[in-house]
Amino acid sequence: MKRSISILGATGSVGEQTLDLVRRNAESWKVTALTANSNVAELARAAREFRADIAVVADERYLGDLRDALAGSGIEAAAGRAALCEAASRPVDITMAAIVGCAGLGPVMAAIEQGGTIALANKEALVSAGEVMTAAVAKHGATLLPVDSEHNAIFQCLQGGEIGDVRSITLTASGGPLRMIEDLSAVTPEQAIAHPNWDMGAKISVDSATMFNKGLELIEAHHLFPLKLDRIRIVVHPQSVIHSLVEYRDGSTLAQLGPSDMRVPIASCLAWPARMDTPMEPLDLPAIGEMTFFAPDEVRFPATRLAREAAEAGGAAPAVLNAANEIAVAAFLDRKIAFSRIAVLVENVLNQNDLPDAPRTLEEVLRVDEDARRRATRILEPV
Length: 383
Ligand SMILES: NC(=O)C1=CN([C@@H]2O[C@H](COP(=O)(O)OP(=O)(O)OC[C@H]3O[C@@H](n4cnc5c(N)ncnc54)[C@H](OP(=O)(O)O)[C@@H]3O)[C@@H](O)[C@H]2O)C=CC1
Ligand SMILES: CC(=O)[C@@H](O)[C@H](O)COP(=O)(O)O
Ligand SMILES: [Mn+2]
Prior knowledge:
Blueprint: E1 3-8, H1 13-24, E2 29-36, H2 40-49, E3 54-57, H3 63-70, E4 76-79, H4 81-88, E5 94-97, H5 105-113, E6 117-120, H6 123-129, H7 131-140, E7 143-146, H8 149-158, E8 166-173, H9 189-192, H10 202-210, H11 212-224, E9 232-236, E10 242-248, E11 253-257, H12 263-271, H13 285-288, H14 303-313, H15 317-333, H16 341-350, H17 362-380
Parallel strand pairs: 1-2, 1-5, 2-3, 3-4, 5-6, 6-7, 8-9
Antiparallel strand pairs: 8-10, 10-11
This protein binds NADPH dihydro-nicotinamide-adenine-dinucleotide phosphate, 1-deoxy-D-xylulose-5-phosphate and manganese (II) ion.
1-deoxy-D-xylulose-5-phosphate binds at residues 148-150, 173-174, 176, 198, 208, 213-214, 262.
Pfam family, one: DXPR_C
EC number: 1.1.1.267
Protein name: 1-deoxy-D-xylulose 5-phosphate reductoisomerase
């Protein structure tokens, strides 16, 4: 029998790699909803190819274009945040949550509320909503499968083990494209998005360069795996062959290895708890030759320190960190601020002494997110 899937963020890097796997096993899948922000051409093309029930653009200005692009196909066209959440709430066997940023939070929560399986790539949603999201998962009997390569690696290494037997988990970090660059103030967007190992969207690529990606992943891991923060470590591993490690109390450390290709963790989620074929070549260890490991440099790249502090503070701090980072990354990509100002801006917002209280509902998380965006924008564009 076919399994049904909705892909939120279908036109992005994770979304397209998910569709690639669906295409290779087309007879096994029924596509329900596909969504994008504004990329109508790619969304309509995919919706027609996969005979989706509905295609949604978040940006309402593109509804007319989407209707035109889908004319005669019988595929429903819709636009706006409410439509995105309505599409995400349609019951499916699995939802791929691959929107970038906190913009994906509402749709992810809508998918959780239908109680199915959510393959979560959208780490910003979990970082911002934290306990609000994990409580909703428990309440609605949903299953959250980690797509992020490190968390997927840890999830795989935990299969058959007991979390109570885990001494620590270690997230590997490539260190990004700027690890060896001396003057971080002069870095261009082109340099920052040129990730050495992974082909990803612009926002996460900048996050890898600042190490905010690893900071967000630290908070993500804290919510996905019930371990104290001091049991979650980060090690720089420039080859990105080992995707993360779990150390058990008997001294055994399990690691998951694989090519730097997101289709591996995506396939692991799509087939879970079984396995499926992917077009990956076997790992060629002699060709890889060497694997190296370094401690993170938190003086040059303060993001992991800031994330750890925000996670320790709890409350609104992780959502504030995420929102300020989203504003800073967008400003950097727009060439409005220097690369080295990203972390400074995030720290400035986090250090404001009148931050909102801990959010307890989705609406409160969204208010904290908006408030932090305003604070960050005010620092960038003082009136
Ligand atoms: N790329 C990767 O390898 C990995 C990504 N992740 C995480 O997965 C998520 C997606 O990353 P990635 O695929 O690289 O991102 P991309 O930028 O490539 O794609 C983002 C997707 O989200 C859509 N989108 C953007 N803004 C909005 C919005 N405001 N409302 C609704 N939809 C929106 C885009 O639509 P449109 O095309 O119309 O703009 C696109 O479909 C991120 O959270 C990232 O951190 C995690 C691990 C690895
Ligand atoms: C593929 C993936 O999961 C990314 O999050 C990747 O890990 C980014 O690489 P960094 O280790 O450089 O942040
Ligand atoms: Mn990752």
